[in-house]
Specification:
Layout (H helix, E strand, L loop, with lengths): L15 E3 L8 H4 L5 E6 L1 H17 L3 E6 L6 H10 L6 E6 L1 H14 L2 E6 L11 E5 L5 E6 L6 E4 L1 H4 L4 H23 L12 H26 L5 H21 L3 H7 L12 H15 L4 H14 L5 H4 L6 H14 L12 H24 L1
Parallel strand pairs: 1-8, 2-3, 2-4, 4-5, 5-8
Antiparallel strand pairs: 6-7
Helix pairs in contact: 3-4, 6-7, 6-8, 6-10, 7-8, 9-10, 9-13, 10-11, 10-14, 13-14
């Protein structure tokens, strides 16, 4: 057998459909998967939109089993949900935020059924991936669970997403803006991606498009979200946050920024931060470690300040963190990602701590200078 080069692999959901008010017009897209559904959501999402969606499904002759998400995408909670399913369904629907959707993916994988993902937030790029992030019961990171296939359908309704607080959209910006930077770092060393292959040019171009779209439309989309209205700008960044960034990270690769944000709980202090908020500060840290051009750093920093993403240690709730405490996070990050030492810049724990401190001071100086003007 001839030896082959490491393969370039690109993966994606089978279908991605985005349209205002699509949720209550979804029957033509769902009926191909059967008529028996199990739906996973939390109490808040059911109250806002999920129960009405279940009524819509029943009105269109679907049999629906309703599961209540327990609040944590832990192996224990996932098994509990699976045990509640008595009549084998044709497909599973996850509706809500990231942990709910990851639980639905786990159910779909375990039961070997179709998986439909309906994000009610644009706060991460996880909905389109074949990945579930598992946590322990106390909320600490457990493991990445890679599935054998991507979701069969991702259904995105901007009318629903526009009703969420804008902090969620901003978190999605933080997550998505890291995609190109991290994928490029992986591509520079021909590293493995989440697709278990080498990154493709296609993934890199999509990652770049995600960044470009957010920088072009993000500020006005953020204002539209504040007003709870759907505009072309909001629709564009929803696509960037969920679809473009998702395709870019999964087939392009993640690197230091995501390894670092995963390690934040090691400090056991600070504010309750969303995934994308942690990624935002970690991205600034990676940019400084890469010795990115000042204009590039300022571009990201200015936008983060516009939409309220954290740019100082105080924003993280770490204003009194010692170097020893930050070293806990850095050591955890350095140990968590096996390829971190292959990146083309110093990724030692000492370098990570120094960069986290440098981001804090850089942002303070930047803001002071802006006020002086």
């Amino acid at each position: 057998m001839m030896q082959i080069d490491l393969p370039k692999i690109f993966i994606s959901p089978s279908n991605y459909i985005q349209a205002k008010n699509i949720l209550f017009n979804a029957d033509p897209y769902l009926s191909r998967y059967g008529s028996k559904a199990v739906i996973v959501g939390d109490e808040n999402v059911y109250g806002l939109v999920g129960d009405r969606f279940i009524d819509y499904l029943k009105d269109n002759d679907y049999t629906v089993t309703k599961l209540m998400f327990g609040g944590e995408a832990s192996p224990e909670e996932i098994q509990k949900a699976i045990d509640e399913i008595k009549d084998p369904p044709d497909f599973v629907i996850g509706i809500g935020g990231g942990k709910t959707l990851d639980t639905a993916k786990e159910i779909g994988q375990h039961l070997n059924i179709y998986t439909v993902i309906i994000p009610t937030l644009a706060s991460t790029d996880a909905p389109i991936s074949r990945l579930s992030v598992l946590y322990n019961e106390d909320g600490t990171f457990n493991a990445y669970q890679f599935h054998t296939k991507s979701p069969d359908l991702v259904l995105v309704d901007p009318a629903v997403i526009s009703q969420a607080p804008p902090r969620f959209l901003a978190s999605g910006f933080g997550d998505a803006l890291s995609t190109y930077v991290e994928a490029k770092a992986v591509g520079d060393i021909h590293g493995f991606t989440n697709a278990q292959g080498i990154g493709t040019i296609t993934a890199m171009k999509i990652a770049q498009a995600s960044t470009d779209t957010i920088f072009e439309f993000g500020a006005q989309a953020f204002e539209a979200n504040k007003a709870k209205v759907v505009t072309p700008a909001l629709e564009a960044v929803i696509e960037a946050n969920i679809l473009m960034s998702g395709l870019g990270f999964e087939s392009g690769g993640t690197s230091l920024a995501h390894a670092l944000q995963n390690s934040f709980p090691a400090l056991k202090k600070g504010k309750h931060l969303m995934h994308g908020e942690k990624v935002a500060y970690s991205l600034l840290t990676q940019l400084l470690m890469e010795n990115a051009e000042t204009a590039v750093i300022n571009h990201y920093l200015h936008f983060f300040l516009q939409v309220g993403l954290p740019t100082t240690l105080e924003d993280l709730g770490w204003e009194d963190a010692t170097d020893d405490e930050l070293m806990l996070v850095a050591n955890d990050a350095a140990a968590a990602w096996t390829g971190i030492d292959q990146l083309r810049f110093d990724t030692s724990p000492e370098a990570i701590v120094a960069a986290m401190r440098a981001v804090d001071q850089y942002s303070k100086d930047y803001q002071a200078h802006a006020l002086a003007e």
